[in-house]
Amino acid sequence: MTRRAGRAAGRGVVTEVRSAWRDVPPYQVRQFAALAMDEVPTLAQDILAEIRREFPQLPLIPDAFGEPQALVGIRQSLEHFVEHMMAGLDRPHVHPRVFQEFGRGEGMQGRSLDALQAMYRLGVRLAWRRLAEIGQQVAIPAPAMYELAESGFEYLDGLVAESVRGYAEAAARQAGERLRLQRRLMEQLFTGAPEAAARGGYGARGEGHGARGDGYGVRRQRRAGGGEAGGASGASGAAGAGDPGSVLAEVAARIGWPLPERVAVAVLLRPAREAVAPAVASDVLLDMECERPRMVVPEPDAPGRRELLARAAAGWSGAIGPVVPLPDAVKSLRWAGAAVGLMERGLLPAGELLQCTEHTEALVLLPPEELIDDLTRRRLAPLARCGPTHARRLAETLLAWLETRGGAPEVAARLGVHPQTVRYRLRQIRELWGWEIDDPDRRFELELVLRARRLRGELE
């Protein structure tokens, strides 16, 4: 008996609906099942043959006993369904685990599940056609056969669910492996491997280079055969087996990352511990395992690349280093890290992905704090004779004069004060610094330290 919700006289009621399959006499069910089970081996072969005709690209992978896994799966599913039919259609279905393997295989090959589901539907259609013939042969009532067909479609849904589970497991495993290889590739980039690669492991473009193709330099030599060339290649291969450049090229090939000529490296600050990773393009390497996540952007000067990166990193703070040749990736990383350090101290604006090349002054003047502080102490020593407020005004006037190289009116316009006030301050500056104010080297050093103070917010 099954319970179904129904509606009578406009009111919701629960009605009892009798199972037509349960009304079939047991001897008829046994007879039906025996004939169906006898048909299973032949039917499985016929289904596989038809699937192969419709989907010739289907690979026949043998199991441990040399039998095609597809045939084993079809046969097991037919046997399980017949056993389920005998036990009662209201019992839960049992699905062969091999269907997880089918889904896992599709995932490992990078294919979608569409073709696999189409094969399942074809198999169920062929199986039902034969079961319907057996049902007529043993006089199973039509309502019972309808119920059996409904159970068959539920069984199909279960097979698909098993394959989806296997597919998802494969996808997760592949994603994890890709991330592991990405991190390994990035470590190779940042530990000098590109320099070794550039010396002999691969070319930036063209011969001996490529994520796929005929070689990675040393490996291609190792495959060369015969005579002296073969001996030379063997020696080269032995020498290059541990070559960092060769390792870099191999890891890049395994994740399908064509080695670029130029890259830029970005360092990010997490907006929150559980923040979603930036949705970067597939050719951008991303390592989210670091305290400060890192990105390697290939060919960053390509049209539209900067805008796409800005959108992908929306909500994140960070900096992207200068564009450098691939062997110099660590240099770009160094500048990006320095910029993020200034961001954390509030010396560069946060809330977006900054371009280091647009903040060169801050990056050059602020990180070497000890050197700049020492130079500041020595070059601005004359201001120690003035009070704090007056010293700051003289420093701002001196910087404006050094930057404009103009007269009192130009300096006054920049500072927003009267020209006569500027003339008075400039006379004081000349009295304080004397001959140093006319020395080009001293003026350069004065401008450096005053610009550094402005960047730190100490001057306006």
Topology:
Layout: E1 2-8, E2 11-17, H1 26-54, H2 69-87, H3 98-108, H4 114-137, H5 142-190, H6 193-201, H7 218-223, H8 227-240, H9 244-254, E3 262-269, E4 285-287, E5 294-298, H10 305-312, E6 317-320, E7 324-325, H11 329-344, E8 353-355, H12 360-365, H13 369-379, H14 388-404, H15 408-415, H16 419-433, H17 440-455
Parallel strand pairs: 6-8
Antiparallel strand pairs: 1-2, 3-5, 3-6, 3-7, 4-5
Helix pairs in contact: 1-2, 1-4, 3-5, 4-5, 5-9, 6-9, 13-17, 14-15, 14-16, 14-17, 15-16
Notable traits:
17 helices; two-stranded antiparallel ribbon; 460 residues; six-stranded mixed beta sheet; 8 strands; alpha+beta; disordered N terminus
Structure description:
By secondary structure, this protein is of the alpha+beta class. It has 17 helices and eight strands. The strands form two sheets. Strands 3, 4, 5, 6, 7 and 8 form a six-stranded mixed sheet that branches. A two-stranded antiparallel sheet has the order 1-2. α4 (114-137) runs antiparallel to α5 and α14 (388-404) packs across α15 (408-415).
